[in-house]
Every structure is written in C-alpha cells, then in structure tokens.
Amino acid sequence: IVPIVIAMDGPSGSGKSSASKGVARALGLRYLDTGAMYRAMTWWMLREGVPVEDPAAVAARAMDPVLDSGTDPAAPTITVDGADVSGPIRTREVTNAVSAVSSVPAVRTRLVQLQREIIGIGGIVVEGRDIGTVVAPDAQVKVYLTASEEVRARRRAGDLAADPGASVTVTRAEQARRDRIDSTRAASPLTKAADAQEIDSTELGLDEVIEAVVRLVKERE
Ligand code: C5P
C-alpha cells in the first residue's frame, strides 16, 4: 500500500488551511503548508531589502535563505535560518508582497524541490496553489477548494482582525489582486487540476468540509 498524498489547492480564504489541518488530524497524516514557505521566502527578501517587484533581484537571492517546515498538523512550524517566523509571515506587508515573489520561476523551482523532499513517500496533506498540478501530480486525492469572493474576504479579514487597516473592503481588494496575480502568472498559475474534485465551502462549516475530504479518501480505498 502506497502512503497517500492529499493535494489541497484553491484561492486565498477558501478555508484550505483549517480544512487541511483537520483532514491530517482526522487521518493521522502529516501536513505541509506550502503558502507558508512562499511567505517565509518573501519575509526574508523584505528583511534583506531585496526589491520584491524586481524578478531578477528576487531570482538572484532565491537560494540564500535556509527554510524548514515542520509537518505536525497540531503545531505547524516554519523557520528561516533556524528562527521561527510563523507570526511575521502573516503580516499585511508580507501578504501583499508574496505574489510578486512567488511568480519568480527561480523561487518556485527551489521551493517545489524542497516540498517534494518533505512529501517524500507520502502520508501527508499538502496545501497550496499548484500541488495537484505541479508539486504532486500523482497525488491519490486532489481537492480544489473554493468559496464565494465575499465569504473568502470575510474569512481573511477575520484572520487579520488584529490589524486595524484590514477592513473587509480593503481585504477584499488586496485579495482580489493577489488571486489575479496567482492565477495569471506564467509559472504554474493557480488552476484546478483536471482530475481534482471541487468542493465549494461557501455554505459549508469546517467540519463538513473535512468530512467531505475524508469521504473522498475512504471512497478510493
Ligand atoms: O496559502 P497562502 O495564502 O498562505 O499563500 C500565500 C501566497 O503564496 C499565495 O498568494 C501565492 O502567491 C503563493 N503560493 C504559491 N504556490 C503555492 C502556495 C502559495 O504560489 N503552492
């Protein structure tokens, strides 16, 4: 029996992170948040003063930070040069710069390789934008999680509740911009894999989404 890989892709605010962690816990699997890796790379670029809108400048430094991701769904960690950056990678500054950094092919090549090393033989839920299409095209279960734009903006604004600039209106505009860049970039854009199962979480609670994914896993056994 081959250890399973569950690919969870979709736009921001679709509920991927909560659902992916929940599925991993329900099934006793590891968990990898690839968005956190792109965020960590972005956080490091900003700290180093790299002009993130300049693809050549970003590409030139793409190999420099040492990144590592823990895979415990109960306590996922992300470190840069050994320091935990779980908090700093969630700021608006990083969120609004990450799409520029993640569209640079040298960044993607490096992080996809790292992601494949962590995935190893499997036993893992992996969330991102290109997992079912590029990182793990052989994943046994592929989910494309969506939700209405309105609901996604509300969830994101909730995540950023501590940030006074993050009203639903502003969050919605920033998120639409990020999704547009993520979906239209040349290097592995966000797109639903041909063999992915779409789950629309607009009207679903977290437990229902987790159940739906677990059902897909059980169906193929
Ligand atoms: O999932 P999260 O919103 O944390 O992802 C942050 C950003 O990282 C995305 O907006 C996207 O630009 C990038 N990303 C990506 N490929 C992935 C995961 C995330 O390009 N597999």
From TrEMBL:
Binding-site positions, ATP: G10, P11, S12, G13, S14, G15, K16, S17, S18
The UniProt similarity line reads: Belongs to the cytidylate kinase family. Type 1 subfamily.
Q: Where is the Cytidylate kinase domain?
A: 6-218
Record GO biological process: pyrimidine nucleotide metabolic process
The UniProt entry, under InterPro entries, shows:
Cytidylate_kin (IPR003136), Cytidylate_kinase_dom (IPR011994), P-loop_NTPase (IPR027417)
For this protein, the record's Gene3D superfamilies field holds:
P-loop containing nucleotide triphosphate hydrolases
Q: Which UniProt keywords apply?
A: ATP-binding, Cytoplasm, Kinase, Nucleotide-binding, Transferase
What organism is the protein native to?
Actinomadura litoris
Q: Which GO terms describe its molecular function?
A: ATP binding; dCMP kinase activity
Q: Has UniProt tagged this entry with the keyword Nucleotide-binding?
A: yes
Tell me its EC number(s), please: 2.7.4.25
Pfam families in the cross-refs: Cytidylate_kin
Residue ranges for the region (Disordered) are 156-194
Question: Which chemical reaction does it catalyze?
Answer: dCMP + ATP = dCDP + ADP; CMP + ATP = CDP + ADP
The UniProt transmembrane annotation reads none
Q: Which SUPFAM superfamilies match?
A: P-loop containing nucleoside triphosphate hydrolases
Q: Where does the UniProt annotation locate this protein?
A: Cytoplasm
Q: Which NCBIfam families match?
A: cmk
Residue ranges annotated as compositionally biased, kind Basic and acidic residues, are: 174-183
- According to the lineage, what is the superkingdom? Bacteria
Q: Write the protein's name.
A: Cytidylate kinase
